[in-house]
Amino acid sequence: MSRDTLNWGDVSVTVPPAPARAGAASGDDRGAAAPSAGRHSWSGLARGADADRVVRALTAPEGMGVVITGDRGVGKSLVGRSAIAAFGADVYTLQLRSPGNGTATPYGCLSFTLARLPQSSLGSPTAILHGITSLIRDDAAGRKCVILLDNAGALDEQSTGVLLNLLQTGTARLVATAQRTTDLPPDFYWLITSGQLAEVRLSAMTELETRKVLQAALGHRVSTALASQLHELVGGSPTLLQAVVSEQIERGNLVLAGSVWTLVDEVVLDGRTALEDIVRARYARESPEAREVIEVLSCARSMSLSRLARMYGPSLIADMEEAGQIVVDRTDRHFVTLGDRYLGDIVRNWLSVERRLELRDKVPGHREEELGELTVQDLLAYAAWTLDCNAELAPAHALAAAQAAVRLFDPKFALKCAGSIRSRDREWPEGQQQKAAAYLQLGLPLQAMSALDDISEAQLMALPPRAFANFIASKADCMAWLEDRSGKVPELLRQARLRLQEFGPDTEADGLACAGLCLELCEFNYLSFIGDYAPMMQRLRDAAENTAADAVDPDFRLRAAIILMEALGMTGRELEARAVMRDIAGQLGERANVPRLRENFAWRSFNVLLLAGQWRQSIDMLKDASGRAGHGLHSGSAATDLAVGLAYVYAGRGHLALDPLLAAIAQLEVRPSLQSLRQAYAAAAFAYAQMGNSVQATIYLDRARSADGPGRFVVSSSADFCMDMASRWLGDPDAKDRLVRAAERYDRDGLYTLAGISMLGATVNGTVKDFLFMEEIAGRRQGQLAELSRVVAVGSRKKDAETMLDAAALAAALELDAVQARCAALAFDFARGSGQASLATAAHSMLESLTDAVPSLPVVPRNKGPLLTDRERQIASLAGNGVTNKDIAQEIGISVRTVEGHLYQVFTKLGVSSRSDLLGLI
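Below the sequence we write its predicted structure tokens.
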């Protein structure tokens, strides 16, 4: 047959996704469903550029088509369909799919076409070839033809021959899908290597791409944490992402809180939607042995490679890893998990209790007598497996699993594990303490207190010293959150110390000493909770240097030093605090296995750095606190989002703070955390105020005021500051007085850092008295922020433009945009008032450079005056660099006389008399 050339037109873009549901932008509709979307729309959002690449390959003059390659689930078929759909009705499309057993079924992908051929065309392979070719040409009716072939890697020999003939004769062009080009029949592989078939390789979506697709499809903000969780869950597949999101919305677990999509609870996949069809299709293709491995890992969540290999042999495990069905991590234990987490959730939901128990009994090391050798991951896996079987854990194992879950910030699982412990068990007191810790993580102090109150007096009296001190520490933590009990903590600690003295002479000395250190740390934690740092400063220093305590509790000094670091940061010793921080950071590697130590250090360090003006470093410090997210998918993400937003707000970058703050608020509104919601509302109000959005700032300010309640001092003082600053920015005449009163109170309590920050915020329109007080406080502090406060106070009091520009430079070094803008505005006013034109120009230039970063100035210059126009600035810049008037005129296309007139205006406005004076001013 002669080759028929296809004349392809230009096709620019793929079919756009379906529009969002009307009304998707409504305010606080938490029950809102996702915008309706066609089956292909999510893949279209993610794969538009890839579909365009396919279109370009199809329209290449000398090409025969394109092969789309990529791992399972990346959307190869949908990209092919989207590309073909772009051609519209002018192109005839034939969709084929090669069955899984293609080599055993001749003409497998063309079977329906064979059924349409007349008997005369079935006599030989050649007759079949000609018959199919003619049939396709007739169906195309003169139009161009594209064949879309799914699963081309399983193509049989006869189908390969027919398709090659269709391509080589120009009857059709091909869009084929396969995981790898090496999976294709040799003839097709040769066409790729010779350049006649193009290859478009699809990769899984990145986390950033996942977030963009979610926001485009759902029509509202999506937090970084949510995007990260869903990306990890679906492995970057847009098809699976759509299925998971649809299921979570249907279950009411993914809701629209305000203007942000967030999860109410952990992602649980029960396969009630299209996701189950995807899983069943994949599961059915596996061998019985591979299915059992999937079932075991579905129940166990993770398992060490050595244990799994002993059960099923290394060959099967290696094959499954190569196929991407399982993943082996790179730790010493080489833990194995399923490649797709959603697969495990759905398969586990299929299994009966009897089957789960049967599989558990097959796993070596999961018997109770072997549990002492399990790692934390194995222990949690065993506990989850047992609870999935509706069985109770042995008390010792329930306690160990609850402790691990609390350490990994998975409070709900900790409560499930501790629920297996009965009041008659000797583990009951410690189990109730783990319950209390879990309830506190959930923001439920009353329930936490109730759990501790369920421990009987007899059980308390039977506790050894260390266990008794740990109970007192747990009780003090709970009482601190309850307004009616917080003031009773000192008496609780006094009584506890008396109780330790009552232990008999046969009591272990080290146990008593360790209990005493535990109570001392408990008191330090309580005093820092209420913000009473000054009375314990010397005791904290002594505790941090108490080398004798190492023999009893090797972690005591480090824990005391972490509290000391925060106390120093609060009391104006910022440089000393950072020195202690560096010293602690050098020791943390030796204490990697101490529960919650690194996280405690990271969060207290965040506060120290933030209040010292080091907001970028404070955000970096949050990386060490990310372990809080641990075992639970979304645990701790609200705290991290809030902290990042708070750092941006303190830096005066409200436009950057808004996304993380609204994400934190959405999460906290559906999963409350102690006192954090008030702080989040206050920070959002401050961010909106910095952006000049008074309406939203007022809304969030009202929400913050209505969310009052007890809280950790660091959090409540920050919330108060943000509320007062938002009010001052909105023009509240009483806001300044509140900030000054707060500064006076902090000064009396020795909290000079907070006093200085409050005065810096209060003195935007301060008096001489205010500036003298601010300068006095700065003298009691250390570090760059203290120096900035001092220079601002001196420059404002003396109305010195040059000093205020120095302050602006200090603020710029700390990247405190709002403070820099304030200093520049005041420098401009002072310079204009004293006739210092060059300083006024420098201040004005600085203000102009901050226009985007600070849309609403904290201080508006009283008289901007007639500064340089754009043309005057252009001419002045050239003149200052030695360009003659004639050359300036030729370069910008005006007369020499006009240049002279502009320069006269420039000299007058800037107060200079020569061209050389212009250099550096423009």
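Confidence is low (pLDDT under 50) at residues 1-39, 627-635.
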